[in-house]
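Practice set, problem 2.
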Amino acid sequence: MKQKNELGKGLRALLSTINSDATVPVDITENTKVNKVSLISVDKIYANKQQPRHVFDEELIQELAESIKTYGIIQPLTVRQTGDDRFQIISGERRFKASQLAGLREVPVYIRHANDNEMLEMALVENIQREDLNPVEIAISYQRLSDECGYTQEQLAERVGKKRSTISNYVRLLKLPVEVQTALKAKTITMGHARVIAGVDDLLMQMQLFKDIQKSEMSVRDAEKTLQNYQRSKARKPVKPSARSIDQTIEVLEKKMSMFFGYKVQIQRKESGEGQIVIKFKNDHQLNEILDRIDE
């Protein structure tokens, strides 16, 4: 019961509803019992390649390893048995890495039955509830739960114990330009800033607002006021970014698209916003390469 209390609301709900008739072959030995905490050799445990988080802070892992040397592992890892006395991590990879660093030979694990989909779902939900994930990582986790597990935002809200609007706000972040997402991950802007930028439909205007926020070191409140000015100006003369700023933004977009297709791309845009994208090629072979990139 103590272990369950250490888990987040969404993950507890998820674990309580996992199908006990999972298709994964399970070979329970006398040393391992499903749904109970057991000690397992670290040599028998391996990471989940579908783990939503791929980058770990080595300094934090080192700090956790020092803590484990002193106090041991307070919260057991959650794993599933995949046969041949091997166990795959569902949640707790950071604790696992720290345990290896601390020189532990065995770690406490909580063994669950889970098929591949259930495994993915548990891993994503567990990550969403981590406080050290950046907003983009959380947004990607929500999107994967929707795409790969088939949940609507309403169902996700119920699964993870969040408001539907919260999930919607995160998922909208994935539609922001890469530069904005990168700044959000680097914490040079906040989730509040990103929400304000996401409230702008026009890509060029989004980039202009993003640059203004960074250049003027705007607070979220100031960014909201700036956006309100944009919206109010629609009834008057629209507030547009400068021609130079537009040119710079288009140049960046052309370079990105050229790198993606492998051929020179030109974006031709009129002042009204109307325009076209031109991808230049010299023969059918190059055209097919461009089409292959689109198919990918």
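Problem 2, part (b): a different protein.
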Amino acid sequence: MAFLSGFLLIDAPASALNNARDAQDAQYDNEVGVKLIRVGRDSYPYVSAQAFRYWLRDTLAQNPDWLAHTAPVFREAKVAYTDANPIKYWDDDLFGYMRAEGKKASAKDSRADDAGRANATELSQSITRTSPFRVGTLVSLAPSAIVKDFGTMSRTGPNMQEGDPVPHSHQFYRAVFKGQLSLDLGRAGLFTYTGKSGNQNLDEVRRKQADEQGLEHLTAQKAYRLNREQRIERLAPLIRALAELRGGAKQALHYTDVTPAAVLLVVTKGGNNPLQYVVGGGEGGQPRVNVDALKETVRAWRDTFLSPVYVGWTAGFHDPECERLRTALEELRAEGVDFVLEHPRTVLRRVADDLSGDAGVGWLD
């Protein structure tokens, strides 16, 4: 099994990308707070993995081909799930699912009254699929001082309200977020039917569909697999979408471009993430390339590498650190380690192109 693993950095110069339900240290009843990890007296803002996955799904929805293969969502009271058909829907394949319908009479009545289920795939048993695409919580590289911005709701002109202005407050921060990524290339387009949570991807209804549509049946693995072209058709848009990421809260007041300012990736034989310590927080909380960590980890793990080290770094984003990284990679190149260093968007497109071409032969085995 091959994995595309690494991390990305998002620059948030004055932002509130992911808000909490309750503001910590709130001074006003209506204060909106950001999500924080407390370590002693320090605060580390973070963006939840759920929020990031929502951003990525929203970005992918701008792609007509992807949107045409997006699973419908069904609701039962407080429960929601997708059609859970990875043969038909690309997002069910790459983002995973759990579909366990309620057994109470009220749940059955709810389903019977839902006209939107006319084209739903029938379900013969509960099914689940762990997500081949995984992302960690995006955490600030360094502690950040949380700023409280006080404001009022007030208008001038003919629609000016009477009485005192209405006060409100919200929190924001200055941070660089780091989030780990992993894409299980071998499981994309591979659907198992073993009786284990996360691996019971298909029920009898979906297995019948797999047979009818001519998916490769791997009986020893209890799995069905799409052909290589079909799998690439799903994976490549997801990789390219990472370069064009959109989303984040408070954009009206704290507009922030959430496309990666930097990204480091490599295709490896296993699911480990050897690059995770290459960039950390330096003096003043700024990103700092750990050259020693890079050299050590590449030398230790290079026998598992199936690709060059892909580095995307935006010019203007801590350029001296990019140059330190480039110098270290040039030294490793003398030892036979290949790398690519370009803009994050061109690098992520290069990864998708390599996956589709001769360089990616073997990545999906």
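Answer key, part (b): The chain has a mean pLDDT of 93. DSSP finds nine helices and 19 strands in the chain.
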